[in-house]
Amino acid sequence: MIRADLVIYGARQLVTLADVTVPPGPRRGHDLAELSVIEQGALAARDGKIVWIGPADALPRQVSQLSGCGVFDATGHVVTPGLVDPHTHLVFARGRAVEFSQRAAGKSYSEIAQAGGGIARSVADLRASTFDELCRNAGKIASRMLSYGTTTAEAKSGYGLDLEHELKMLRAIRTVDSSHAIDLVPTALPAHTIPVEYRSRPSDYVDLVCHEILPAVAREKLAVFNDVFVESGAFSIAWAERIQSAAASLGFGLRFHVDQLSPMKGTELAVRLGAVSADHLDFISDDGIRCLADSTTIGVLIPGVSYFLDCTQRPPARRMIEAGVAVALATDCNPGSNMCESMTQTMNQACVLYRMSPEEALTAATVNAAWSLQRADRIGSLSVGKQCDCVIWDTDDYRDLSYHYGVNLAVHVIKNGLRAAP
């Protein structure tokens, strides 16, 4: 008998997303819709790891419950892996609701930025904030994410834009990660935009990022990845390549914001440098789609920004999927372009705006998102040996996670074999 300290039984649908690719890898093409559903399923865990999974009627014969075992009756419910959010800016000082009102009155995102809003506003706010304030605000956002079913989230710096405050942000991410049930995966983003004080000498800021900020982050082991925003008005292809070459030499994995606001061919750069992910992709080229499909780089799509900013140009998600691109979904939770912590809301937006199916959206929000964080060996699917990160949902049909939007269907969120929310 297998001994367990946590048991979930009776699930109407146990969506495992167990590996269907050989060798294992992110889902592409038709495999993106393969969920591996066990009807009337059950699972058991011990010490935070899954030790058994199968049909509920086999559970009593194969699993014995240890004293104090946590038991969850999922009768009539759906159980999925914990959701994975691979692109967020959850550390910031204040919201930018005033800009939301300005956009409603007709101002564009770029017009607001040129008037001193946008990222520059968040930079000024963050530099004026205390470390404790950042941790408190980030902790609240992490709690909301967890309550909506997200058990792992990437978290970026990028509102400090100098040595002191970039380190402050990344230390805040480390502090929240160590004290919160959610797992945060830290990414350095000193190359988010050129700070105001360097606008007349941007190459000096690139020097600062390469020679001071990134080495300091590496010394303190504050980040797993480094990210660059490749965009007109931010960082050119040449600057991005220089920054990411420096980051790679320091041991960072590479992520990119690319082809979001204009066709910069940033996707091609990300693939050429062996990036883990290329994110946004609204203006991806045909060549970019082809090279992304032929690479290990994950294309992270962010429909919440398309919705929140009412973008007319959107990523060609269907063409990308049909070409064989491994796509993931993310909230990009941030105060300026998508103030939303919910991955199920993101899944709905992906279905409506990008014409993804509910099955594709769920895969992109779990196993493929885990691959984009290089954690697919631990999270993103339910199989023996992986972390027991899962969600019990108040529905009997997994499609409701995308279809029934605007509500929180999470009944129990389980992280490392323990109930983490509500």
SSE arrangement:
Blueprint: E1 2-15, E2 37-46, E3 49-55, H1 59-62, E4 63-73, E5 78-81, E6 83-85, H2 97-104, H3 109-114, H4 119-127, H5 131-147, E7 150-156, H6 163-179, E8 183-191, H7 202-220, E9 225-229, H8 237-249, E10 253-258, H9 266-272, E11 277-280, H10 286-293, E12 298-301, H11 303-308, H12 317-323, E13 327-329, H13 343-354, H14 358-364, H15 367-372, E14 390-393, H16 400-403, E15 410-415, E16 418-421
Parallel strand pairs: 1-4, 1-5, 6-7, 7-8, 8-9, 9-10, 10-11, 11-12, 12-13
Antiparallel strand pairs: 1-2, 2-3, 5-14, 14-15, 15-16
Q: Characteristics of this structure?
A:
422 residues; alpha/beta; 8-stranded parallel β-sheet; 16 helices
SS element count, helices: 16
From the alpha carbons, calculate the radius of gyration and give it in angstroms. Answer: 21 Å
Helices and strands: which structural class?
alpha/beta
- End-to-end CA span: 31 Å
How many strands, which pairing sense, and closed or not: the largest β-sheet?
A: 8 strands, mixed
| Overall geometry | globular
The overall pLDDT, averaged over residues, is 97
Proportion of helical residues: 25-40%
Q: Using DSSP, what is the number of strands? A: 16
Strand content: 15-25%
**Which segments are poorly predicted (pLDDT under 50) over 5 or more consecutive residues?**
none
